[in-house]
Every structure is written in C-alpha cells, then in structure tokens.
Design brief:
about 850 residues, alpha+beta, Immunoglobulin-like, eight-stranded antiparallel β-sheet, eight-stranded parallel β-sheet, binds 2-acetamido-2-deoxy-beta-D-glucopyranose, polysaccharide degradation
Length: about 850
C-alpha cells in the first residue's frame, strides 16, 4: 500500500512572492481539525474574515477531504459543511472513486494557510508543482465558487470544452464557458457539451485535472493562471499524474466511465442530410452510392421522416411506415444499416399519445406551480422528459419500444438535447391545450429576448458566465424549471443530454441484451462516452471549419468519447467541389465518418461530383484497408480510454515542435494523416517527427528529422504515413465493414531504424457484448515475425501476405522486391489467427 504523501507545507519565504491576484477582496479560509483518514485527511475550513459576498453569499463552514488514491490520482473535495450545495448524484455520473488502477506517478499533496489568501494547496509530481492555489483565496458562495491555480508561462493546456478552438488552448486569453447550448460551432464559444477536464504537457510529461461539477462555469486561462468560476455546487477536483497523455486519459475515463464498446460496423462510412424529401429520395441516394462504388455502411434519416416533426410518428405521404420498413429491409439484405433521429421534445397535444402518457406518468419537466413546462421546438409547443422523474425511464422505454417495433433500426441519433428550445421560458404555458403553432411547426419568427429578471439570481446569476446569450435560459429549458426531485434546472442543465443518453442506451441494451447499441448524441457531459458516440454538431461548409474539425475530434479523445467526427463537407451553407474533396480526405479518417448536410444547402453526397467520388474511393479505400487497425484501437478505447485519433503531441510528448500541431493527426500510434486544409493548396507543409516513416501508397521511406517537409497533395491525394516500428494489420476494402473484416489479412511490418516492429490485432465478433475475443501481438526483429497472444475467438481468415518495409537493404537484397529495395513481400501465406506462430522473413 502506498504511503500517503500528504504534508503540511510550512509557510515560507518561497510563497511570499504571491499575493492575492483576485480583483475582489475575499478573505479565503483557514484550516482546523485536521484528521487523518485512510489514504488522506479531512479538515474544517472556516472563512478567514468577513464575507465578501461577491457573487452570492459566502459559506462560512466547509469541509476539505483529500485522498491520494492507490493509483496516480489525487482528489481534493471542498464541500459546504451543511451539504446544501448541489452535487451530481452517483446515479447520474457514477464516479469510480475506488479505482483498481495500479500505476503510480508519485503524486503528493501539500497545503498551507497563506497569511492573506488563506488555505491553498499544491499537487506535486516528484519535484514539479502541477497545480498550485497558494496565494489565491478560495471563494465558496452559494452561487459562486472560485479556484485559481498558477500555471507556468506559456503553458501547454489541452481539453475543456466543447467548442471549436485551437487544440492547444491560448493560455494568454481563453475563457471556456461550460453551459450546454444549441449553437452552430461559434469559434471559442460554448456549444453542445460540457467537459471540464484538461491536460497539460509540462516538459514532455502530461498530467490532468477534472472538476466534477454540473453548474454553468467559466474556466479562464490568462495571466499564468487557470481560474474556475463556477455558478454553484462544490469543488470536487481530481488530479491525474500521467506521465503520458494516455495515462491521464486512462485515469480520467476510469473515473468517469470508459468509452462504450462499439459495433464494428460504426467504423464504416455513413451518409445523412437534413432535407431528404421522401423515402424514394433516400432509396435513390443509397443506390447512387452503390453505383459510384463508394461503400455506404449506414444511411441516416433526420427529422424529415416524422409526421410534422413529432417523435415516434411517420410522415404518411413522404415517409410512409411500410416504405421505411422496406428500405430498412433492403439495406439489411446488403449488409447496410439505418439510423434515425429522436429528439427529447414531445409535442404538447392532448390527443398525441407520447404527450398524454408523459403527463399521466408525471414524466415531464415542470413549472414551479407544478404544471408541465412548455417550450417550443420543431413540432411547436413541447414538453421535455424529466430524466429525474421516477417514471421517466419507463416512459421513455415504452415510447421507444413502440417505435422500434415499427422500425427495428440499427441505431438512434439523439439531437437537440441541451435541451434546445426556440423560445425563452415556458412560452406555451397558459396557451390553450390544443393550440399548436401553425405549419411549418417551428418558432413564431423573431421572438425578442425577454427582459432578464435580475431579481431572480437563478435566472440571472450575479456572476455572468460568458454564455453569449441575453440570459442563460435563452434557447433552452429555463433555469427555474423544476425537476421531479425538486432540483431546478439551474443546477442540472449541463446533465440533460447525458441523462437522455444514459436512458436511451439503457433502452437499447434492454431491447437486444447482448447486442452493442449504436447511439449518437449531441449534448454530452463527463462520462457520456459510456453511452454515446458524438459528432461535433452543426458546422459550416467552409475551410476554417474543416481545419477546426481536427481539434474538435482530438478534444473528444481527451473527453473519453473516441468515436467522433464532424459533418463531412459541412452542414450549413453550400459546400464547393474542392472543399468536399478535401473534407472527405480528412473525414475518411475521422473515427466517426459521416457526411451530413443542412436543409438549405446544395446536395453533397460524395457521388455528386466525379472528382469528389474519386477522392472518396481513394481515401475510404485507405480507411477500409485499415479497418482491423481502427477496430483494434476502438477496442482498446474500451479497455483504457485511449483515443483512436490522436494529436502528434500525445505520440511525441517531448517534441516542442508539435505542442500546437492541430493540422495533422494520428490514428493510433502508427498512422499519420497530413491533409490539405487550405483552399487551392496542392501540397502540404507537414511536420515529420523524428522517426522513420513510410508513405502509405508507394511505401517509400521518409526519414523524419523533426522538421517540416513539403508533400505533394494533388486534389485526389491525402498524405498518409506509416510510422516505423509498427506492425499494421490491413484487409482488402469491400463494400461493407462485415465483408472487409471477413477477408484475409496483409500485415504491414514497418521496421524502425533498428529493424524492429510490434503491433496488435484485436478480434471479436464486432457485434455482441459477450463475444469471444483474441488479442494477438506481433513482434519482428526484421528477420522473423512472431504472432503470439491470447486466442479464444474462432476465425478462419488468415494472414495471406506480409509486406516488410525497411530503411536500407537489410536482407542483403536476397528476396527483395525488385521495384523497391526497401520492401519485402511474402505472398500466398496462410498463417492462422487462432494460435501463435513464428516465421522467417528471409
Ligand atoms: C519520479 O521520480 C521517480 C524516482 O526518481 C522516478 O522513477 C519517476 O520516473 C519520476 N516520475 C516522473 C513522472 O517524473
Ligand atoms: C502568450 O504570451 C507569451 C508572452 O507573455 C508569449 O510568449 C506567447 O507566445 C503567448 N502565447 C500565445 C498563444 O499567444
Ligand atoms: C490579467 O491581468 C490583467 C492585468 O492585471 C487584468 O487586466 C486582466 O483582467 C487579467 N485577466 C484575467 C482574465 O484575469
Ligand atoms: C395532435 O395529435 C393528434 C394525434 O397524433 C393528431 O392527429 C393531431 O393532428 C395533432 N394536432 C395537431 C394540431 O398537430
Ligand atoms: C408513475 O406513473 C403512474 C401511471 O403511469 C402513476 O400512477 C404514478 O403516480 C407515477 N409516479 C409518479 C412518481 O408520478
Ligand atoms: C427588481 O426589484 C427591484 C426592487 O424590488 C425593483 O425596483 C425592480 O423593478 C425589479 N426588477 C425587475 C427586472 O423585476
Ligand atoms: C446555396 O445554393 C443554392 C442553389 O444554388 C442557392 O439558392 C442558395 O442561396 C445557396 N445558399 C447559400 C447560403 O449560399
Ligand atoms: C482559389 O482559387 C480561386 C480560383 O482561382 C479563387 O477565386 C480563390 O480566391 C482562391 N482561394 C484562395 C484562398 O486563394
Ligand atoms: C511547419 O509548418 C507549419 C505550417 O506552415 C508551421 O506552422 C510550423 O511552424 C512549421 N514548423 C516547423 C518546425 O517549422
Ligand atoms: C453470449 O450470449 C448469448 C446469449 O445472449 C449466448 O447464446 C452465447 O453463447 C454467448 N456467447 C459467449 C461467448 O458467451
Ligand atoms: C507466447 O507468449 C507466451 C506467454 O507470454 C510465452 O510463454 C510463449 O513463449 C510465447 N510464444 C512465442 C512463440 O513467442
Ligand atoms: C514491379 O513493378 C511492375 C510494374 O509496375 C509490376 O508489374 C510488378 O508486379 C512489380 N513487382 C512486384 C514484385 O511488386
């Protein structure tokens, strides 16, 4: 057992340099009654002076609990002694506080009572102070918490979001606002999800911190500090010692929940648009993809299928149920699949079953007077399921199960679950029961923002988070709406999408108990990766958003939601042929690879332009060849949280040249993508880290010298490199994921400069939870290749071919491919994947 490294720091000269950097005169807290507990200690914290009441009422008595857990985590929990502040229930986000991880990163905790700022603490890894609040008073009020830590100058901070931003955050000037919002990807502003975890790279080593709190907040990076400004709750900080990026993500996802096991098929290419006019048009799109030889795995239908955009209904004219069933059956006969959208908002209509049953079972969010809260979404006035209601789960399961009886889909897409509402407040309350806004069932135009009620601090908190809306209730359920447990929306707003995801996944799990569901969700919170995959919402068809789609994808790797991607070719506005070309060359490598389009935009299915179809076939050809590799990475995500798509800095943590690289990315540790992201470019300035690399297409050697190189990138070409030192399993691309994964393998043995390589292949049925599985490790010293591992999954496909790539003619030119002396090909093999083997390469 680890000896607890907690100590009281004597206040000394070293800290005299710090003085309170806060603009408000808050007194901070003083410790007393320090008590040792298992793995840590508790202490009382008492307000050190008169309350400052800066954005609320100072709470006099707090309790500090510090635990240094049996792993590389430290938890610092500061609660109000009266326990009145809202805390996220375990039933909503189940924090694994008793981790079974056993890696040590030498974290320790120190604290002191600073003469003017009061209680402050440090989290230290060996001799490096990772987090340091000393000199910054803690503010703990009913509606405002403030915690500040020093950061090194020009620190390397990643994470905190969601919203388009540079992957490495600008530490001189960043305010990340956490308040879930239906907003179409505004740069640096808050959008659909809230994730408070961040990672820092300090001299090549990573650590991380997570604040477990559901309230609206700003996290401010400026003046060599990180400052949390939170609208309520408690300070429940978790620190992860790393030292690799993957160690941090492993610890974080172990705490909040691991990513879900995905159906292998979800790694296939997918197509959607908002605005398909009929099921006939959907059929035509499916047929056109086949005709163009572009592998379409999933066809998606947006709210278009619904009868007047109401959940669980079918448009009787354009999307009649029997025709949808026929399309679904046709897709299934060709190993293709279908997903449709479901929103949380339920039309307020006293003869519409889902509404009637929701009212009967008390399953909707309420107004303070106990009446149903009525906002406005696509179908007009709507009620919203209250996930805290006792009956909400059974209500939602019942509605979904009646829906699934009609359309046995391959997945669900839950949208608008921030939850979005087009009016502010309970705008339908008081409007006669069966009045429904007129077709087209949307907002009455231009509802002016109401005058904010500054006298209600839950509607207008005194500290104004940087939510770019007149009031925080705008475009969502009002903050004073009431949940069944008596808690108002103010405290739990950021949990709505997460709870919908959890309930919806629970339904899918019950429906087909052994089948891994596919669920895509827009609004997420810490731990949502256990329930949903994610796309980055309504982006715009422009080059900037193509660029930021990479950092958004990489962010969600940190957040523990690795199956992620942005709408390929862009959602709003019209794409161009060139943009769509370049976008599929990036999007083919997103873990979640889907074209999606807005209702007012020109069509952008990949077959619409010959050049785009060609780029798609080529880029998706690489993707499909890599499917066993992608699937192996996805499987490891469920084991240790590691992201599928990774920034270069995770793989080359000591290379300062890649600290802010967000224009290239890696899949796993072996594949680097260097796409074109700027209009009219036909080459890429790509950074080639210090390593041996091989061009994907011609296998030529690229000696990475830790410098930029100009790579040719004509319109139909995306640069892909294999990193030396890796054995990459590939298969021959087919029109479906199932057929691709059923084929024989080609192993690419990309040797490093020592003529060595290793790799992994994870095999299971890709469908069920309880599948048998094999984990096969490959090792090569350049002369032999060994396959060894644990084998329990029965497969008949074999390794048919091995391609060895090396820098130099290490074979003595004996059996070397005459076309390329760096390459050795062994063909017509029949090496099984059900037991170990060892072969000589020459
Ligand atoms: C901390 O120090 C120990 C002992 O010197 C060393 O083994 C370990 O690698 C260090 N950890 C980090 C993250 O630097
Ligand atoms: C932040 O400011 C420092 C100087 O104080 C500068 O060196 C650094 O480049 C700045 N960082 C960014 C991202 O602007
Ligand atoms: C950073 O410091 C400057 C100068 O003291 C101050 O004006 C500014 O408000 C500070 N920024 C933040 C976000 O605290
Ligand atoms: C209310 O719901 C019923 C049952 O679905 C439907 O027939 C009716 O058209 C709806 N009313 C309006 C105004 O949408
Ligand atoms: C749950 O729903 C049933 C009927 O559907 C109702 O009788 C019961 O009162 C509801 N429970 C609560 C807590 O509202
Ligand atoms: C807030 O309360 C004050 C004092 O009661 C009152 O004068 C003011 O009109 C109120 N403001 C609003 C927006 O209701
Ligand atoms: C998109 O293209 C269509 C058809 O050319 C045009 O009507 C529409 O105005 C364009 N939309 C935008 C946002 O430019
Ligand atoms: C790309 O080329 C087109 C046609 O020459 C031109 O109109 C456009 O401005 C160029 N874009 C950029 C970013 O240079
Ligand atoms: C490589 O090129 C990129 C894009 O032009 C540039 O931002 C970066 O600073 C360059 N890196 C190095 C190490 O030269
Ligand atoms: C998985 O569960 C199904 C029933 O749900 C059962 O038929 C099958 O044999 C199980 N497979 C394994 C490998 O346990
Ligand atoms: C395979 O791994 C097992 C267990 O690690 C080891 O005993 C065995 O020698 C290995 N076989 C080969 C061929 O390397
Ligand atoms: C060498 O190149 C020629 C011409 O491209 C091709 O036909 C032949 O199959 C190649 N040989 C090998 C072993 O790859």
């Amino acid at each position: 057992m680890r000896v607890l490294a907690v100590s009281l720091l004597a206040f000394g000269a070293a800290y005299a340099q710090y003085s309170s950097s806060s603009s408000h005169p808050c007194p901070g807290y003083t410790t007393s009654n320090v008590l040792t507990i298992r793995n840590g200690f508790t202490a009382d914290l008492t307000l050190s002076g008169s309350p400052c009441n800066v954005y609320g009422n100072d709470i006099n008595d707090l309790v500090l609990t510090v635990t240094v857990e049996e792993n590389n985590k430290v938890n610092v929990l500061i609660e109000d002694a009266a326990m009145k502040q809202y805390q996220i229930p375990q039933s909503v986000v189940s924090l694994n506080r008793n981790s079974s991880l056993h890696s040590f990163a030498d974290l320790s905790f120190k604290y002191t009572d600073h003469p003017t700022a009061g209680f402050g603490f440090q989290v230290i890894r060996n001799d490096t102070i990772l987090f340091d609040t000393i000199g910054h008073p803690i503010v703990f009020e009913d509606q405002y918490l403030e915690l500040t830590s020093n950061l090194p100058k020009d620190a390397n901070i990643y994470g905190i979001g969601e919203g388009p931003d540079t992957f490495r955050r600008d530490v001189n000037d960043t305010i990340k606002t956490l308040w879930n919002r239906d907003a179409a990807n505004p740069y640096k502003q808050n959008t659909y999800g809230s994730h408070t975890v961040y990672m820092e790279n300090r001299a090549g080593k990573f650590h991380g911190a997570y604040l477990h709190n559901s309230h609206g907040m700003d996290i401010v990076l400026a003046n060599e500090t990180i400052q949390y400004r939170v609208l309520g709750g408690v300070l429940d900080m978790h620190f992860f010692g790393g030292p690799s990026a993957y160690d941090v993500i492993n610890s974080y996802t172990d705490l909040v929940g691991r990513p879900l096991p995905i159906p292998a098929a979800t790694l296939g290419f997918q197509n959607c648009r908002y605005g398909y006019k009929s099921i006939d048009e959907v059929d035509q799109v499916i047929a056109n993809y086949s005709a163009a030889n572009i592998p379409l795995e999933y066809m998606w239908i947006d709210i278009d299928y619904m009868d007047r955009t109401r959940d669980f209904t079918f448009d009787p004219v354009n999307f009649p149920l029997p025709r949808i069933q026929q399309t679904l059956a046709n897709l299934h006969s060709k190993k293709q699949k279908m997903v449709m959208m479901v929103d949380p908002a339920i039309q307020r209509n006293s003869t519409y079953g889902p509404y009637v049953r929701g009212v009967e079972s008390n399953a909707f969010v309420k107004n303070a007077d106990g009446s149903v809260y009525v906002g406005q979404v696509w179908p007009g006035y709507t009620a919203f399921p209250d996930w805290f209601a006792t009956n909400a789960t059974s209500y939602w399961h019942n509605e979904l199960s009646m829906f699934y009886e009609q359309v046995p889909l391959d997945g669900l897409w839950i949208d608008m679950n921030e939850a979005a509402s087009f009016c502010t407040g309970s705008c339908g309350s008081g409007v006669a029961e069966d009045v429904v806004p007129k077709f087209p069932w949307t907002v009455t135009p231009a509802v002016p923002p109401r005058i904010p009620n500054v006298n209600n601090t839950y509607l207008v908190p005194k500290y104004s988070i940087h939510n770019p809306q007149t009031e925080i209730s705008e475009k969502s359920i009002e903050t004073i709406a009431v949940h069944a447990n008596g808690v108002i929306e103010y405290h739990v707003h950021n949990l709505y999408g997460h709870m919908m995801a959890k309930n919806t996944r629970a339904f899918l799990n019950d429906l087909r108990p052994n089948v891994r569901p596919f669920l895509l969700g827009r609004s997420t919170f810490a731990g949502s990766g256990s329930y949903v995959s994610h796309w980055n919402g309504d982006n715009n068809s422009d080059w900037d958003e193509l660029y930021f789609s990479i950092s958004s994808m990489l962010d969600f790797g940190i957040f523990g939601i690795p199956l992620v991607g942005s709408d390929i070719c862009g959602f709003f506005s019209n794409t161009t042929e060139q943009l769509c070309n370049r976008w599929i060359e990036v999007g083919a490598f997103y873990p979640f690879s889907r074209v999606h389009n807005g209702i007012d935009s020109i069509p952008q299915e990949l077959y619409r332009w010959d050049s785009v179809a060609e780029s798609a076939r080529r880029a998706l050809g690489v993707r499909y060849a890599l499917l066993p590799y992608y699937y192996t990475k996805a499987s490891y995500s469920t084991i240790n949280g590691s992201p599928i798509a990774r920034p270069l800095i995770f793989e080359f943590p000591a290379d300062t040249n890649v600290l802010d690289n967000d224009s290239q990315f890696m899949i796993g540790e072996a594949i680097m993508i260097s796409p074109v992201l700027f209009e009219n470019d036909t080459s890429v300035e790509a950074y080639i880290p210090n390593s041996l690399w091989y061009d994907w297409y011609d296998h030529s050697v690229v000696v990475g010298a830790g410098k930029n190189a100009t790579l040719d990138a004509p319109l139909n070409h995306v640069n892909v490199h294999i990193r030396g030192g890796n054995v990459v399993p590939t298969q021959t691309p087919q029109m479906s994921v199932e057929d691709t994964l059923a084929g024989d393998y080609t192993l690419i043995v990309a040797l490093d400069s020592n003529f060595a390589a290793t790799g992994t292949l994870y095999l299971d049925d890709g469908v069920t939870y309880n599948s048998t599985h094999s984990i096969i490790k490959f090792y090569s010293d350049g002369k032999t290749l060994v396959a060894n591992g644990t084998y329990s999954h029965p497969v008949t496909n074999v390794v048919e071919k091995i391609i060895v790539l090396a820098n130099g003619d290490y074979t003595g030119n004996k059996y070397v491919n005459p076309n390329n002396t760096n390459e050795l090909i062994l063909d017509n093999l029949s090496l099984c994947l059900t037991e170990s083997w060892n072969i000589n390469l020459f």
